[in-house]
Write a structure and sequence with these properties.
alpha+beta; Pnp Oxidase, Chain A; 6 helices
Length: about 150
C-alpha cells in the first residue's frame, strides 16, 4: 500500500501543479469563435499571428493544422505558442503545445466546430478522423505555461 502511494506521489504532484487558464482567458475561451496564434521562431522572434478555429474543453484548447505547417513543426520542437482569444488584442496566454494524431479526438471536435462555425455545419473545414488517420491533419493541444498569462 505504501509503495503504491510513494510511486504515485510524483504523478499526483504533476496533476496538482498543472497550470490553469487565468479567469479572463477561460471566460473568453467559452464564447470566442477564433484564436489568434503565433509561434516562436528559432531566433526567438514571434511569427505572424494567424486566426484559427478551435475547441475548448475547460483544460486545453485544440485546433487542427497540416503536419507541414510551422505551427505543427514548431510545436513538435517544444516552442511556445502565443495565443490571443477572440481578437488580436484579446486576453492572452502563452502555451505549451502537443501534436496529436487521435482520430477519436477529431470526431469529438467536429460537432463543436459545427455548433460554432456555419461553414463547418455544411461540411467544410471541420476536423475529420479520416484525415488524421491518413496523416493529412494533426491536432494541436495547447495548455497554459506556468505563470504565463498576461
Amino acid at each position: 500500500m505504501w509503495l503504491i502511494l510513494i510511486a504515485l506521489t510524483p504523478l499526483l504532484l504533476v496533476v496538482l501543479a498543472r497550470a490553469e487558464f487565468p479567469p479572463d482567458v477561460s471566460t473568453a475561451l467559452r464564447t470566442a469563435k477564433n484564436l489568434y496564434v503565433a509561434t516562436e521562431r528559432k531566433d526567438g522572434s514571434q511569427s505572424e499571428i494567424s486566426p484559427i478555429w478551435f475547441m475548448f474543453d475547460g483544460e486545453a484548447v485544440y485546433f487542427t493544422t497540416v503536419p507541414s505547417s510551422y505551427k505543427a513543426k514548431r510545436t513538435q520542437l517544444g516552442r511556445p505558442l502565443h495565443v490571443w482569444v477572440g481578437s488580436k488584442d484579446g486576453p492572452h496566454f502563452t502555451g505549451r503545445g502537443e501534436v496529436l494524431t487521435d482520430p477519436a479526438l477529431a470526431e469529438r471536435m467536429a460537432p463543436v466546430y459545427d455548433d460554432k462555425y456555419w461553414i463547418s455545419w455544411l461540411g467544410f473545414f471541420r476536423p475529420r478522423a479520416e484525415r488524421v488517420r491518413a496523416g493529412k491533419t494533426v491536432i494541436v493541444r495547447v495548455t497554459p505555461l506556468d505563470a504565463s498569462a498576461s
